[in-house]
Amino acid sequence: MKLPETVAAIAENEASGDTARIYAEIRETLGIVNLIWRHLATFDGALDWAWSALRPAYRNGAVSTNADYLRGIAHLQFQSVDLVPVEALHCLGLTDATCTDIADIVASYDRSNAANLTAFNALLLRAQAGPEASSSGPSEMPINASSRNSYRKLPPILSVTDLDAPTAALVVRLNELCSTHERPIQVSIYRHLGHWPAVLSLAWAQIAPLAANGQLERCSQLIARLAQDKASLLAATMQPMERHPVAEKALAQFLERIGLSRMIAITAVHAQSLGLSDSS
């Protein structure tokens, strides 16, 4: 079994100092510290550079507004996906509490993938414009305590090496559906769901046919086009910023290899099947 490539990352339980502080702010804002943030943390100053530039747009609702539009489009492409009845989940050996954990994980990726695709494309556009570029938006919008998001703590993300052989092999097979890049990055969602191998089997049954008939790729291409348009609008509202060539290169390579537009399509399928189209 050939494992998909990983990228350098600082795990949440290994973070300290400013990295841990920023992770906490990201978790409070997004509900999850995605791999893209953990990867940036490995480059000197990159995490603070990115979060300082994007934090106002995440917290004032600009990112979520654009991300919700992308998610809505993705969900519409898969509105015919059948809802998995709770009885079927129970027959897979899942308790009500476990089903809640699974739904929270799927909802977190469904929400954050769309947010990060929009935000990081906007970040690259804004950085490339240079520190002298003008802005049409405010530098910061105050956030009331009552408007901050509150998310349940999610189970930890597992490494492929933490899984038994059949589960690890299935995670690798699922990863092959997540990106068309010749050097795909090992995505997080299926390692996160690896606590429950039966759920991964269900995920394969849902996603593999859509990959085979081209529906995933058509949705991915649509989302990619729309995300670029939304990113351009968002970038115009961001404040001028200094460039960080190392971080910019790392981000561009990461976004190319991870295939976030395809992941938005995939998480839309899983969210639809769990009845999360309106609540995630």
In short:
The protein is mainly α and 280 residues long.
Overview of the structural elements:
The protein starts with 16 loop residues before the first helix and ends in a 7-residue tail after the last helix. With 280 residues, it is an all-alpha fold. Helix content is 62%, strand content 0%. α1 runs parallel beside α3 and α6 packs across α10. The protein is globular, with a radius of gyration of 18 Å. The protein contains 12 helices and no strands.
Along the chain, the helix and strand elements come as HHHHHHHHHHHH
Q: Which residues form runs of ≥5 with pLDDT under 50? A: 138-148
Distance between the termini: 34 Å
User: What is the alpha-carbon Rg in Å?
Assistant: 18 Å
Principal-axes shape call? globular
How many strands, which pairing sense, and closed or not: the largest β-sheet? Answer: none
Structural class by SSE content: mainly alpha
**Helix percent band:** 55-70%
Kindly state the mean pLDDT as a whole number?
89
Share of β-strand residues: under 5%
Question: Helix count, per DSSP?
Answer: 12
How many strands? Answer: 0
Task: Quickly list its features.
280 residues; mainly alpha; 12 helices
What order do the helices and strands come in, and which of them pair?
Layout (H helix, E strand, L loop, with lengths): L16 H14 L4 H6 L5 H14 L2 H16 L8 H6 L4 H34 L35 H12 L12 H4 L4 H16 L2 H23 L7 H14 L1 H14 L7
Helix pairs in contact: 1-3, 3-6, 4-6, 4-10, 4-12, 6-10, 6-11, 6-12, 7-9, 10-12
